């Protein structure tokens, strides 16, 4: 029995020793394998961390490559300053704030630097971008007729109806357009470009945009194979700039070309105009002006349509919409997109500078033309029917700013002489005249 127990004990001891040996080797092997795996994983982890660091650095580098700080040019900075000046003039001096604030902001938006042709679709000239879709209304001349609809719905033609001879002053002021057309031709612009530039003299932003969208849009090809330049941006900015600067540009010309005695001439108050006359005027005006210049139908048709809505007395809701909500919305879109179209690489050219110079000359000639023609008319009028020549300056179609300038200058000469109602007659006829002139230019240049 003792021998049996001894054998069993020896076998048990050997079993323990064997198992311990096998287990120890197994654990060593496992530890060794685990260490190897950890070493490999450690190596792979280090590589991954290095790759991650490189990826982060590349991402940061790419981010900076797409920022405006990397892509900014001197041209962008110049245009941003111009945009800030527009906003400053509108807020500080109240120069056409409804126009200059949207345009100034648009200039800022249009000159935020970005990587071109990177598929970002943010620039106004990039197909598919939101700004490009909004700009469609400028390129295709959609916004200007809608502006004219609103103008017609808020315009009172009573002063012109009561004294129809004053329509001649509005016509005389358009001389600036045709003289500037000849000047632009002599400076090397082709005929369609010259016609678009010349219309700036009418001081009518919507008309200038409408005509340039048809003639100087960068698409039309002349008979000799030359493609006209896209001048919509410079022309629109010049036109609206001079509209805003009417109180600055016109007074010196008015004082230079008139005497104090002439500025003190009193005119008879306008006669009362009947409702029938007010209704018949836009209908007759629509037919007469569009028969003379069918190419101006989009502008003149909408102008007189808006006035019919106003004067008919039965479409007050439509008239209110046209002269308030609609014109406000279109003004925002037009001002913003026109401003954004002044992208530095497109806008800052020698042609743009020439356009601003020619536009200023055109506007000054138009102002002088109205003043001089009023003085000529006085040569053939009796003393009690003479015209205060100041109202000739309102022949440009910057409504109602030119008429207000005339009122202010008249009050400076005689604090009791109110010329506003008289000045509105050539002022509104100037709107019609510039649209007719645009139609005439479009008919033989388009």
Q: Can you put this structure into words, describing what you see?
A:
- The protein contains 21 helices and no strands.
- It is mostly helical and 446 residues long.
- The protein has one domain.
- Helix 6 runs parallel beside helix 16.
- It is elongated, with a radius of gyration of 37 Å.
- The relative contact order is 0.15.
- The N terminus is likely disordered.
Q: What's the tally of helices?
A: 21
Structural class, by secondary structure, is: mainly alpha
Tell me the radius of gyration. Answer: 37 Å
Overall mean pLDDT stands at: 86
Residue stretches low in confidence (pLDDT < 50, at least 5 long) are: 1-14, 16-35
Shape: elongated
Helix content: over 70%
Distance N to C terminus: 130 Å
Count of spatially separate domains: 1
Percent of residues in β-strands: under 5%
Largest beta-sheet details: none
Q: Give me the strand/helix succession.
A: HHHHHHHHHHHHHHHHHHHHH
Q: How many runs of DSSP E, i.e. beta strands?
A: 0
């Amino acid at each position: 029995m003792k021998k049996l127990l001894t054998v069993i004990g020896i076998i048990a001891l050997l079993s323990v020793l064997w198992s311990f040996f096998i287990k120890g080797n197994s654990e060593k092997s496992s530890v060794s394998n685990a260490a190897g795996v950890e070493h490999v994983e450690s190596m792979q982890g280090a590589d991954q961390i290095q790759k991650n660091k490189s990826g982060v650095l590349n991402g940061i580098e790419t981010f900076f490559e797409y920022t405006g700080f990397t892509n900014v040019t001197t041209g962008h900075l110049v245009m941003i300053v111009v945009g800030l000046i527009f906003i400053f003039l509108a807020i500080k001096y109240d120069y056409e704030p409804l126009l200059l604030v949207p345009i100034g902001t648009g200039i800022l938006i249009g000159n935020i630097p970005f990587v071109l042709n990177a598929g970002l679709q943010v620039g106004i000239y990039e197909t598919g971008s939101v700004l490009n879709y909004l700009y469609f209304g400028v390129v295709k001349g959609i916004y200007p007729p809608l502006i004219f609809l609103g103008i017609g719905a808020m315009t009172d033609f009573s002063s012109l109806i009561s004294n129809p001879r004053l329509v001649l002053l509005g016509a005389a002021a358009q001389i600036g357009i045709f003289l500037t057309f000849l000047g632009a031709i002599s400076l090397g612009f082709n005929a369609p470009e010259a016609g678009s530039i010349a219309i700036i003299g009418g001081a009518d932003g919507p008309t200038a945009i409408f005509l340039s969208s048809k003639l100087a849009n960068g698409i039309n090809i002349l008979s000799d194979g030359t493609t006209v330049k896209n001048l919509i941006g410079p022309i629109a900015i010049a036109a609206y700039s001079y509209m805003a600067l009417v109180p600055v540009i016109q007074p010196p010309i008015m004082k230079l070309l008139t005497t104090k005695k002439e500025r003190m001439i009193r005119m008879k108050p306008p006669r009362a105009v009947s409702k029938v006359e007010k209704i018949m005027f836009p209908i007759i005006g629509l037919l007469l002006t569009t028969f003379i210049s069918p190419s101006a139908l989009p502008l003149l048709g909408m102008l007189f349509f808006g006035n019919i809505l106003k004067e008919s007395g039965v479409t007050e809701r439509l008239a209110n919409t046209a002269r308030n909500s609609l014109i406000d919305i279109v003004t925002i879109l037009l001002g913003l997109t026109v401003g954004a179209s002044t992208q530095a690489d497109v806008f800052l050219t020698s042609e743009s500078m020439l356009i601003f110079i020619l536009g200023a000359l055109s506007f000054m000639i138009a102002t002088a033309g109205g003043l001089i023609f009023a003085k000529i008319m006085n040569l053939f009028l009796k003393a009690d029917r003479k015209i205060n020549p100041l109202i000739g300056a309102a022949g440009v179609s910057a409504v109602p700013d030119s008429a207000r300038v005339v009122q202010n200058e008249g009050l400076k000469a005689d604090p009791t002489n109110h010329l506003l109602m008289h000045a509105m007659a050539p002022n509104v006829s100037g709107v019609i005249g510039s649209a007719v002139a645009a139609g005439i230019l479009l008919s033989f240049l388009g």
